[in-house]
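Q&A log
Question type: sequence-to-structure
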Amino acid sequence: MSYSRSLLAALTIASVAGPLSAQRATTAADAGRIIGALSHDSLQGRAIGTPGNDKAARIIANEMQRLGLVPGGDDGFLQRIPMKLAPSRRPGGAMRLAPVESFAALDTVPAERRGQSQNVVGIIVGSDPVLRDEVVLVGAHFDHIGMSGARAVDGDSIYNGADDDASGVAAILEAARQLKEGPAPKRTIVIIAFTGEETGGSGTQWYIRHPVRPMEKVVAQLQVEMIGRPDSLAGGPGKGWLTGYERSTMGAQLAAAGLPVIVDPRPSENFFMRSDNYAFALEGVPAHTFSSFGGHTDYHGVNDEVDRMDLTHVAAMIDATAKAVRVLTDGARVTWNEGGKPARRAAP
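Response status: OK
Response body:
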């Protein structure tokens, strides 16, 4: 890729910089710094259970530390997940890493089938005496699909995942920065970079079973996924859409606050059920994904790289994300609209 290798060190360099400045909007350079580091070739596509995925988690943890978030993991900002190789849910699919019940249970798994991954979790504690025990979850997934096991495309075999979903991780980190630099939020915010979204949502499954704040206190979840390029159907640069907009009051609340968010323009794609938000929705939490994915052909391809991003657009989407989180933390509690809450399918 064309982005400089020095970007990989940018987050480490930033950790020894001076104190954070007064609250400011995100710039294209801010967005590019994080996306470039996470989508660098040296991370080899960030597939779950690989050294590149672990390296990405450390980059994110370092950034959370720099921002002054409260560590939410069992190992600093890292929420470790014991995993094992298990058959794919898809007929004919390859083996995949799936979480096991506990690290003690991992001892019963043959050594050659053991694995481990991690979510990265930081907390901004709420300030309102009445609302601070309520929680808004803000997430994005940092894993991607790794490297091609077949043939390279024009000499490139790395699925860098700049848009999917390094762009979303940049958004939640930069939103955290803006929120930390501004007035303390009324509700508590839990910022989560999830692992395993690309292979069935293992990071989300683990978090729901091991939340850092009680799940019954979670009042909303906002996922940010693929904001790297403008979507003409959303209105172009700086504008996005919300999956499942009509299902809860979240979309209307954000629009009423002047945010550039509309109804998902591609309902037939079922995007509401295709990201980590859906697992939380099944738990009863009003949960949606903010995106500007317009169907570009680099999706899950080797050309999903930072130099194909519209970083000015990304910066505007990040600013909208920060404002959206502020609405969720300080505004009225989000509720499901009638018939909007998804129901679990009965086991066969």
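Response note: Strands lie at 70-71, 78-86, 96-99, 114-124, 135-141, 188-194, 218-224, 240-242, 261-263, 287-291.
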